[in-house]
Design a protein that fits this description.
Elements lengths: L1 H19 L5 H11 L8 E5 L2 E4 L10 E4 L2 E2 L6 E2 L1 E3 L17 E5 L12 E5 L5 E3 L4 E11 L3 E10 L6 E5 L1 E2 L8 E2 L5 E5 L20 E7 L5 E2 L1
Parallel strand pairs: 3-7, 6-7
Antiparallel strand pairs: 1-2, 1-5, 3-8, 4-17, 8-16, 9-15, 10-11, 10-14, 11-12, 12-16, 13-15
Length: 229
Amino acid sequence: MFVLALVALGAVIASSRAASTPLLDEHTMAAAREVASTHEPARIPLAAADELHIMLPIFEQEVTAVGYHPVDGDNLVTLHPNGRQLNGSLISSIGQVAQSDGTGYYLMEEGGRFGAATCSLDVGAPAGTVVFAPVDGIVSGIRNYNLRGECPDTEVRIQPQYQSNMMVVMTHMGNIQATLGQPVRAGETRLGSVRGLDGCIEQQLSRYTYDSGNHLHLQVEYPNARTQP
């Protein structure tokens, strides 16, 4: 009887807690993830741009997919993916980042854009996921703009160390923590978080994930490049 009474009491306490605890919506959970996350990404090279190595900018367990696609613009540096192409595989992209033979990635459709198939890189992750610097260098630019004239977005530019003839450009970011002129280290310095573009534009990466396809967009440019991410 005493044991049954304890079990009943525990059930009452659990039910009262459940009733008093509201369900967290996606935005609240994303904000909590950003504040609470202390995980830095593993030092995984995603791609190379000549002698510049682009390191994984997001904690690997948060990555939903990695995809490459063309971008309209001049002076873009073609990226050379590290790893293996997953197109045509029936295996989920989740968990395909840290492979023994390199990063799993997708080559996405052109979508009416011109240029090399690997001149830009999308790293998928839920909105609010922390974004770290993909290279060592200095933050050389931060600007707000409207993506395709419709979606508020932020661009962060990094001048890579020892590569003065190149610029690493990242978009689809929010909650910017980087400051102009700030030195950054790959995989260690927080720049901001992945911006949620749900309901604003159709995200091509969603064709390769189980979510809406929110992601960090990254490309490497020669100085004075004119691009449309």
